[in-house]
Automatic annotation (TrEMBL):
NCBIfam families: sufD. This is Fe-S cluster assembly protein SufD. GO terms for biological process: iron-sulfur cluster assembly. The gene is sufD. Residues 131-364 form the SUF system FeS cluster assembly SufBD core domain. It comes from Corynebacterium meridianum. The lineage of its organism: Bacteria, Bacillati, Actinomycetota, Actinomycetes, Mycobacteriales. Pfam families: SUFBD_core (PF01458).
Length: 394
């Protein structure tokens, strides 16, 4: 009798859908990523400072602070270890870097909004880099209990090599708005997993603004666990010379009568004479509608403006549908230059060509920025876009 040896599958899908990716909290369960791996093919592995293969600089305690406004009600902030049963409930990381962050972290930040509490002023979580010569790992868990309403602003600043996991647990009839503002120094490296789990009739508004960092790779995912959920994922990013931004999303419609909308907009500019790497972005959007997710209504869009030579944007929308009993589903992605009709209109009104192009870029982003409910964040993003465009001849 011949004995059959069965080896465990790693870094792969057990089934045929994007939603069934291999996940684990243990870094040893993942192989070291290679450039030819599908999910890493856009990422410059040599620029990750060893986050992907364990050769990262010495690890240190992350600098994570939480500012709770005086108006807050029912908000609890705790520092916990990874063996706390209240964290990790949104699911395990989908890649080796996320598992490394979980395995190596010393503590996590847990913010809980009590049942039926209402908080319309944002709780601010600030992650400050510890410097490029060290590495920091952490987890930020936001739990919004049944019937609660909350706004959370997560901001990254300073320089460093950083990897983390975020999880958002949104209870039944609860509402969470998250703004993730990536404002690192331009030499920072940051890779993050972001997982959301929505209860019955829960609402999630997830906003990402990425302007800083040398290499930033974010993986947001949403899973509906009961009918009636509503998720909106919005993002803006602006890449210059030497910057690489990657957004890799998954919306998993596993329950009936849920809605999702994804809208990301990015711009890129570069100086071909610079000795820095080209400006580069990659956006991959996956939406899965499972066989039992009747009544789903979903759409995803990614728009990119390439402003100069030496810049490249990749946009890959994917839609998997296992049932025809849905309200609607679609996707769109574009990579291009200015809208000639808009430019002609502004020039015909006597506006300087360079100023006209800047107005078009700012208007391009306004559709997303205008939906962010925190005015201070909206104003800051508008200022950052203006600074990005200052002195650039489009």
């Amino acid at each position: 009798m011949t004995e059959t040896k069965v080896e465990r599958v790693k870094n792969a899908t057990y089934h045929d859908t994007k939603g069934d990716l291999f996940t684990s909290f243990n870094v040893d369960d993942f192989d070291v990523p290679r450039g030819r791996d599908e999910v890493w093919r856009f990422t410059p592995l040599r620029r990750l400072r060893g986050l992907h293969d364990g050769t990262f600089p010495e690890a240190t305690t992350p600098d994570v602070s939480v500012d709770v406004p005086e108006s807050a009600s029912g908000v609890t902030v705790e520092k916990v270890t990874r063996d706390d049963e209240r964290i990790g409930t949104a699911g395990a990381p989908v890649d080796r870097v996320g598992a490394q962050a979980w395995t190596a972290m010393e503590e996590a930040t847990l913010v809980t909004f009590a049942r039926n509490s209402s908080n319309t002023d944002p709780v601010t979580v600030t992650v400050t880099g510890r410097g490029a010569d060290v590495t920091s790992f952490t987890d930020v868990s936001i739990v919004v209990e049944d019937g609660a309403e909350a706004i959370v602003n997560i901001r990254y600043t300073g320089d460093g090599t950083h990897s983390d996991n975020h999880e958002y647990i949104v209870g039944d009839n609860a509402r969470l708005t998250v703004v993730v503002h990536v404002d690192w120094d331009d030499t920072a490296v940051h890779l993050g997993n972001q997982r959301a789990k929505l209860g019955r009739d829960a609402v999630l508004r997830h906003n990402v603004a990425c302007f800083g960092g040398g290499v930033v790779r974010l993986i947001p995912s949403v899973k509906f666990t009961a009918p009636g959920g509503d998720a909106e994922l919005l993002g803006v990013y602006f890449a210059d010379d030497g910057q690489f931004f990657e957004q890799r999303l998954l919306v998993d419609h596993a329950e009936p009568n849920c809605r999702s909308n994804v809208l990301y907009k990015g711009a890129l500019q570069a100086d071909p004479s610079s000795d820095l790497p080209d400006a580069r972005t990659a956006w991959v959007g996956d939406v899965l509608i499972r066989a039992n997710a009747q009544g789903t209504d979903t759409y995803e869009t990614n728009r990119n403006l390439v402003l100069t030579e030496g810049a490249r944007a990749d946009a890959v929308p994917n839609l998997e549908i296992e049932t025809g009993e849905i309200v609607g589903a679609g996707h769109a992605a574009t990579v291009g230059r200015f809208d000639d009709d808009q430019l002609f209109y502004l020039l015909s009104r006597g506006i300087d060509p360079n100023q006209a192009r800047r107005l078009i870029v700012r208007g391009f982003f306004s559709e997303v920025i205008g939906r962010i409910p925190v005015k201070a964040v909206r104003d800051q993003l508008e200022e950052q876009i203006a600074e990005e465009l200052e002195g650039t001849r489009l």
